[in-house]
Structures are given as C-alpha cells and as structure tokens.
Design a protein that fits this description.
single chain, alpha/beta, TIM Barrel, 8-stranded parallel sheet, two-stranded antiparallel sheet, 15 helices, 10 strands
C-alpha cells in the first residue's frame, strides 16, 4: 500500500543547504556533525521527495573563492540539482557570519561596509539567477543594535531602504525574473533587529521605489519569538498579496531561535497554518527553515527532513477531514447562519451617506447580542479530537 504521506515534488517542499547541512554548533558547544557536501545534500533530498533546495551564497561558494573556483563549484552543483530532478526556487546572501558585518550590512554605520554588502549581494543575486531562483530573500541577521547611543534608527531605515531600492534597480537592469522577500525577526543575533515583524515589513515595503517587486518571507519561529500569532501574520501577508515565500519550523515562545521540526511543538497552530495556506490556494514553496536536534547524527538529519514533510502532509489530510466532518461543518454552518440572519445596515464596500445614517438610527438589542454564546469551546474541542485521532 502506498504511503499517503510520502512527499512528492508536486508538494513543493524545499530545504536550505544550511538546514540539512547544519553541523549542530551552538554558543556553548562545538559541532557534532561533519560538514556535508552540497551535492550530497541535494541527492539525499531528492531521494526523500523534496522539490527544491535553497541556499545562501556561502553555503555553496566559500567567502574567499576565486572566480574560477566559483564557476567550477556552481557548474557542478547545477548538474547535481538537475540529476536529482530538483530546482533552486530561492536564494539569499550571508550578510551576518563574517566579522565585517559585526554592526550590520545594509544598515551598518560604516559606509564602506554598506557598499561591500551591496557588492556581495549583487554577486549573490547573479548566482541565484544562474541557478534559476525566482525569489530572493533578505534576512537582516545583523541589521540591528544592542545600543542606540550611536546610530539613529531613522538612519538605519534610510540605509536599508536605499539598499533595497538599489538592488531592485539592479535586478530590473539585468532582466532577471526575480522578486524580493523580506524576512522579519525580533532579535538574535542582535539584541534588537530592525523591522522585527510581518507588520513592520509590510509597512516598510510601501515606502520603497518598487513595492510591487517586494514581499515578505515570514517564519513561524520568528513571529513566535515575538509572542505573536504566526497564522495571523501570514494571513495579513496573504491579504496584502505579499506572501512571496514562507519559512516553516517550530518554536517555544520566549526561547532562543530553536528552528525545530515543523509541527513538533505547536501542532494545533501548525494545523491552522496549513489550513490557511491550503484554503488560500498558496502555490509557492513550502520551505522548511529548521534543523535537526543537536543530539542527532546524519541519519537523524534525514529523519528530521522526512518528519517536516510528513507532518505537513498529515496536517493537510487533517484539513481535508475538517472540511468533510459533518459535526464540525454543522457547527460552522450554525454560526454562519447566525451572522447572515442580521438584516440591518452594515459597513460593506465603500462608504455611503445613506448607510451611515441608517447605522446611526438603527436600534440594536445590546443585551441580547451580549448574551449570545459563540460555541468556540465546542469547535476547538472538535479540532483537538481531529488532531488527536479521535475523529
């Protein structure tokens, strides 16, 4: 019997070289896994049913590689991707590891560092375009501060805006079919990172010269670190037409950036996220920006990768059952009918003087409305029973 939760390329699951290639280093411990060759990672992901692989520039090409070394590495990697039947849908730039970025990249207080960051990013965009990437992600890992005593945060916003505007122009001039996705995070590795949430990023995009080129890449762990509801953040991005990419993982609120396997800590929220994406018809990559526990060897890494994809498909199946469950749908229908039963004036569409007048004159029975229960306890319990396998 075929495994219903075995991933297929049509599911559009992707991993970064940095995710399955994570060597298990942390601030208090040395690596526990060896560095794995990118081509080996691609082959293994292809065998597991992944659709694509993503990368930072230096995940593939060393920081100090010569032009000849770069071309040789890229050609060999492209062949490995093709042989595995995979694609490279997204690329990004490492603007956080090298000491030059100790005070940021695009927002650094040193003009020479800001210029170097642009040079490095243009070359990395060229690499992404060569590999076929249609989305370019910007995660400002060092774009922040521990103290605001020196840099006015308004200057940081100005410099960040100038960088994105410049790079939009570069992509247009090169004729690349590529959009940008900005990835928010509240903190770590900086004490405070600029533009920390989806909402901050969505507003920032409206200030750019080419806002249609730029969307967001929200991450489950990052919004959770900020104490926010990731499903709501993704819904806001969808509503704005700005969900250009998404990072799936898991996180315990209030902890460091854990990047756990998708669905491993918050299964109900993961279910609601999958439901939102599937209901919205999201057709982009389902990217797992996570990594195996530090306890694992290489076999554990592949168990982690399989687990991420299987969990998404299990949640997707639960979404189907949610839609077909007669008790759940009857309860939702009752609530919907209660909403539709109201026949008075309401704010729909654009403003109208007549509707405004009617609303001001309408008599509402506030006591009756205030006493009406919503049966959310019942609905939530039905979801829990669905997730726990009791339905």
């Amino acid at each position: 019997m075929e495994d219903p939760y075995r991933p297929k390329p049509a599911d559009k699951f992707t991993f970064g070289l940095w995710t399955v290639g994570n060597i298990g280093r942390d601030p208090f411990g040395d690596p526990v896994r060896p560095v794995l060759n990118p081509e080996h990672l691609v082959r293994k992901l292809g065998e597991l049913g992944a659709w694509g692989v993503n990368l930072h520039d230096n995940d593939l090409v060393p920081f100090d590689a010569t032009s000849q070394e770069r071309d040789r590495i890229v050609a060999s990697f492209k062949q490995a991707v093709a042989d595995a039947g995979m694609v490279v849908p997204m690329a990004t730039t490492n603007l956080f590891t090298h000491p030059i970025f100790r005070d940021g990249a695009f927002t650094a207080s040193d003009a020479a560092v800001r210029a170097f960051a642009l040079q490095k990013t243009m070359r990395a965009i060229d690499l992404g375009a060569e590999l076929g990437a249609s989305t370019y992600v910007f995660w400002g890992g060092r774009e922040g501060s521990e103290t605001d005593a020196y840099r006015d945060p308004r200057d940081a916003m100005k410099h960040f805006r100038e960088a994105i505007n410049f790079l939009c122009g570069y992509v247009q001039e090169q004729g690349y079919e590529m959009g940008f996705a900005l990835e928010p995070k509240p903190n770590e590795p900086r004490g405070d990172i600029y533009l920390p949430t989806v909402g901050h990023m969505l507003h920032f995009i409206t200030t750019l010269d080419h806002p249609l080129m730029v969307g967001v890449n929200p991450e489950f762990a990052h919004e959770t670190m900020a104490g926010l509801n990731f499903v709501h953040g993704v819904a806001q991005a969808l509503d704005a037409g700005k969900l250009y990419h998404i990072d799936l993982n898991d996180q315990v609120m209030g902890r460091y950036d854990q990047d756990f396997r998708f669905g491993s800590e918050n299964p109900k929220r993961a279910f609601l996220l999958v439901k939102l994406l599937e209901d919205a018809g999201y057709d982009g990559p389902r990217h797992f920006d996570a990594h195996a526990y530090r306890t694992e060897d290489e076999e554990g890494v592949w168990a982690f990768a399989r687990g991420c994809m299987r969990s998404y498909l299990i949640f997707k199946e639960k979404v189907r059952r949610f839609r077909e469950d007669s008790e759940i749908q009857a309860l939702l229908n009752d609530l919907s009918q209660q909403d539709e039963a109201y026949q008075g004036p309401r704010a729909t569409g654009t403003y109208s003087r007549d509707v405004a007048h009617a609303l001001k004159q309408h008599s509402f029975d506030s006591d009756a409305l205030g006493s009406r229960g919503r049966r959310y306890e019942e609905l939530d319990q039905l979801i829990m029973e669905l997730l726990l396998g009791a339905r």
